[in-house]
């Protein structure tokens, strides 16, 4: 009877170790961090016709991107502004950081590459975040999608709230 707690601890430790190995092995089998294995749905894509200029507005709940681009072969000249929508501007006093990406996809929606368009830090929520880029397109690019992420804050005597926001249109195969 004296060695019961010791024996129980030994068996419990072995069971816990086996369980952790099993869980970690299963988790590693399902995690894929490579964005190129994902797809962008058609409703999230903006066509990039060759030898054409285009402008438009892309909206989500938290952001509005007004863009203009011109494609010539494998080169894309893109510019515009990212503005924060009312859920951000009405509720927060600042933007800690924000980042806007262009996701280039082929005709089937397969992700080819992600390129940064704009990054900012400590901005006012009502200040438009400008971007202007000249980018080489990966072979097979037919369209692009936007993705963003950031964090807003509000501060006051009794208030120091943080709000993370993002839009990531890449879906598993």
Which terms would index this structure?
173 residues, alpha+beta, four-stranded antiparallel beta sheet, 2 helices
Describe the model.
By secondary structure, the protein is of the alpha+beta class. The chain folds into two domains: 31 residues; 137 residues, Immunoglobulin-like (Sandwich), CATH 2.60.40. The strands form three sheets. Strands 2, 6, 7, 9 and 10 form a five-stranded antiparallel beta sheet that branches. A four-stranded antiparallel beta sheet has the order 3-4-5-8. A two-stranded antiparallel ribbon has the order 1-11. The protein is flat.
Range of helix content? 10-25%
Q: Residue ranges: pLDDT <50 for 5 or more in a row?
A: 17-32
Q: Give the terminus-to-terminus CA distance.
A: 57 Å
Main structural class = alpha+beta
* Element order: H for helix, E for strand: HEEEEEHEEEEEE
Mean pLDDT: 85
Show the helix and strand layout.
Elements lengths: L3 H27 L8 E2 L5 E2 L4 E8 L3 E10 L2 E10 L1 H4 L4 E12 L5 E13 L5 E8 L6 E13 L4 E8 L2 E2 L2
Short description, anyone?
This protein has helices at residues 4-30, 86-89; strands at 39-40, 46-47, 52-59, 63-72, 75-84, 94-105, 111-123, 129-136, 143-155, 160-167, 170-171. The chain is an alpha+beta fold and 173 residues long.
